[in-house]
Amino acid sequence: MTSADERATLVSVARAAGVSRQTVSNALHAPAKVAPETLERVLAAVEELGYRPSLAARQLRTNRSRTLGLRLEHWGGGISGSVLDRFLHALVDEAQGRGYRVVLFTADDDAGEVARYDELLSTGQIDGFVLTSTHHGDQRTAWLLERGVPFATFGRPWPTPGSGEPVRTDHCWVDVDGAAGTRAATEHLLAAGHAVPAYLGWPDGSGTGEDRRRGWAQGLTDAGVDPAGAVELQVPDSTAAAFEAVASALTDGGGAAPTALVCASDSLALGARGAAARLGRPLEVVGFDDTPVAHAIGVSSVAQPLAEAATLAVDLLLAQVEAGPGGPPPARQHLLAPRLVLRTSP
User: Fold this and answer.
1) What was the pLDDT predicted at 159?
2) pLDDT in the model for residue 162
């Protein structure tokens, strides 16, 4: 056994196992070439000596940096940024477990992000990218596809409404079924006795926002309620904006004021809850994203399976990065089901 300050090497493993250096290398990188009993003896020596193959040597052999890139989004205020924070933590944890690092960078927009791709690829120190916050007119995926760069997105490709331009969908992505989440929230509120749950969402133009609104509308339609007759509010993803819009709906709506509200985010749910509390009006609220704030104040919310999404994103990306002579595998997509978390106020 090596001493605490003596680093195990390929030579010391070979000596301990009574085999050649090439046999040790084969055992680690091409075990099918090694007889079972010899393989068992080599792996036992590797474990006993604590041998760790040289990362630099592995990079030279595979022509890979074992580094993945991801843009760190600017903080836009509010509380919904915790969603990407949790996704990022899970992604880094999964990548590290697979022997990869994640390098973070910033950019102001799509063009800036593409410029960072170009810079990182020119150094040869990046194997592929994970993209987040996909949106209408997304420039990034087309740029990467045209250059054959491995990547996976957390978010579906969204076509630009009315543009007539086809959107590239032939890439790997993982996303959460937002419509299924808001539909479940709507069904819950209907079952709780609310005749026409209202909706508080974002302004037009967000693919994710439109997906979540669609679930609310479908939930009402399935119950025989016309969404056109329901209260529907649109505001930026701001607690203050939600507060003002809901306060107005509760005071100006008279007898038609909503008694329940499905929200596109927890930021909006928090503002809605605050407006109802200030006015002393009953309002059951369901948010989206299941943030720590929703948990703390007892707001029901739709939880996204972020750890599963991160694991799948790494799987999809590494399948491309590590593809053998046969080339990268076909593009795969995963649409994950969210979970409605019901709470009552503390």
Assistant:
1) 80
2) 63
Residue type for position 243: F
144 CB contacts (<8 Å, ≥6 apart)? 117, 129, 151, 171
For the chain, list the strands marked E by DSSP: 67-71, 101-105, 128-132, 151-154, 172-176, 198-201, 232-234, 260-263, 284-288, 300-303, 333-336, 339-341
Per-residue CA distances from 344 to 79, 182, 187, 301, 304 (Å)? 20, 18, 17, 11, 20
For residue 116, the surrounding DSSP H or E stretch is: helix 110-123
Give the chain's residues under pLDDT 70. 1-6, 29, 52-64, 76-78, 80, 161-168, 253-255, 324-325, 345-346
Task: Determine if residue 109 is left, alpha or beta; phi over 0 gives left, psi from -120 to 50 gives alpha, anything else beta.
Answer: beta
Distance CA 24, CA 44 (A): 11
Distance CA 284, CA 286 (A): 7
The structure's pTM equals 0.79
Tokens encoding 7: 């680093």
Three-state DSSP class for residue 127: coil
Rounded to whole angstroms, what are the CA distances from 161 to 133, 166, 210, 230, 233? 17, 10, 11, 24, 21
| Spatial CB neighbours of 299, under 8 Å, sequence gap ≥ 6 | 266, 269, 270, 273, 285, 286, 287, 293, 343, 345
End-to-end CA distance of the chain: 58
The pLDDT value recorded for residue 22 is 86
Q: What is the Cα–Cα distance from 16 to 18, expressed in whole angstroms?
A: 6
If one counts every other C-beta atom within 10 angstroms of the C-beta of residue 66, the result is 19
pLDDT of residue 336: 98
- Which has the closest alpha carbon to 300: 191, 185, 195, 202? 185
Q: Which amino acid is at 39?
A: L
Nearest to 316 by CA among 332, 299, 301: 332
